[in-house]
Design goal:
This protein is α/β, with parallel strands linked by helices. It contains 4 helices and 12 strands. It starts with 10 loop residues before the first strand and ends with a strand.
């Protein structure tokens, strides 16, 4: 079955750091698009901003579907982090009466995906499916996913960030995971 049902063979061990290259990220998006295309035919793909718009746009492009986004975040504009995510933009009206696929980069608690589902239902789509690149084995399970992992995932767009005009290693990952030689890494 090509849905989001958890299969232990799709999981990576806990306490790993999984650094993705752009190439590996592209392959995960390809696998996700194939899973979706084999069992549903969305007319519109909606990426959850910020990070979900990247796989969402890639999946939409591969499937030759319209792409839109909805912004849902735990961060406020000033950088403050909230316990619960909030919807920061309205659901796209273009989803009305359409078969919709909501895409995010990862699901853990499912709070963000549940908010996206609720917001989209208010627009009145014909049907809604959910998809993510990664899921936590004991977390929220979308309809489709590419890989289950407990590892800390380092996305290629998040590995280095701008700080005072310089491109530096993201402080969130500077000391994460096991010693460098023991980390799961995909270069790129």
């Amino acid at each position: 079955m090509l849905t989001g049902t958890f299969d232990h063979r799709q999981a990576t061990p806990a306490d790993e750091l999984l650094e993705l290259s752009w190439e590996m990220f592209g392959e995960l998006c390809r696998a996700l698009a194939l899973k979706v295309a084999r069992s549903c035919d969305p007319e519109v793909v909606i990426g959850i901003a910020r990070a979900g718009v990247i796989p969402g746009a890639v999946v939409a492009s591969m499937m030759r579907r319209d792409f839109h986004s909805i912004e849902i975040s735990r961060r406020e504009r000033g950088g403050t982090v909230r316990r619960r995510p909030s919807i920061l933009s309205s659901a796209p009206r273009q989803a009305h009466g359409k078969r919709v696929l909501i895409v995010d980069e990862i699901t853990t608690s499912g709070d963000t995906m549940r908010l996206a589902l609720a917001a989209l239902r208010e627009v009145g789509p014909a049907e809604i499916h959910t998809a993510t690149c990664f899921v936590r084995p004991r977390g929220y399970q979308p309809d489709y996913f590419a890989l289950a992992t407990d590892a800390t995932v380092v996305y290629p767009w998040d590995r280095k960030i701008f700080d005072s005009g310089d491109l530096v290693v993201n402080p969130r990952y500077r000391d994460a995971g096991a010693p460098k030689g023991d980390r799961a890494r995909v270069d790129g």
